[in-house]
Amino acid sequence: MIVPLAALIHVERRSGAPGARDKVDCWYWHSVFYERYEKSVDTTAMADFRAVTSWILGRGGKPSWLPGSVPPGMDFKTVVDRKSALYSGVLNLIALAGARNLVYGSPRGSSLQIDHLFPKGRSKPWATHPWMESVLNATLLDESTNKAKGKKDPSDFYHADVLPGHGKTGASVRDTFGSHLISPAAESSFAHGSSGAPNSVAIFEDFIREREKDVLAEIAKKLSC
């Protein structure tokens, strides 16, 4: 996908056509979330380059395989392969949203790690849940934040690190969580995520379901082109 992307960016820059970048973006996000490059890469790349170039230059209309909507039945709870287009696509959305430092709310550093939000550990009641490795339980963290989080329960991390850290900087906790595509409802589940709670697994599941809504809403924005 890198080759057609580079080629289309070149066309976009040389054309100077109004809305050309938006058309390249439209193709890119559809390619990611419709997984157009999972098979027959060379054939798809050539066909895409010709069709999108024609669209950019005004010689043809929008390709029919850019429907402008989220693929039906999309389920990120089972997306666990970090090398897949869907997993990478969600992380790209998080990066674009800001992925601010979860402890202080400051801009993220340059060295980022992918890690669980609900940590994996033998003592955690959600550790063997099928959604544990889902991209919905992952985000981008700088090294210092990841060390602070460690294997702490989300509730402990939230109250012992996140709230005091934001209190020091004056940053908005809500804005910080929003920059990780975590809505108020998902944030509430995170803040109550304790391994000692009798409904700890249900809280984890609520977090995953709510975050999926946030991710799908962001995807819908990218595909509405």
Automatic annotation (TrEMBL):
Name of protein: DUF1524 domain-containing protein
